[in-house]
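Q: How would the structure tokens look for this protein?
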Amino acid sequence: MLIPIVITVILLALVFFYITRPLFTHQPLGGSTYAPDVKALKQAAYQAILERIRELDFDFGLGKMSQQEHEEQRTLLLQEAAVALRELKMVDSPPGSA
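A: Here is the predicted structure in token form.
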């Protein structure tokens, strides 16, 4: 009568350990997770700038701003986009390559 209870407790303990093991061990998949996170952040920043340019052009098309305001803001956004794209390409290129 005692043996089935002991076996059941041992099996439950093993199942519990197997299920909760990923919570206690942290092993990044595919090596370091730093580079993909940086790349994803830079890609998102670049896409956000492009979206701001689209919105700016749309607002200008609706007549919500003057041509001078549009040109000034668009120039600044294009400069930001160029910097973001350059940083994104630096993340993509392997170290040591130019």
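The mean pLDDT is 85.

The chain has one domain: 2-92.

Upvote if useful.
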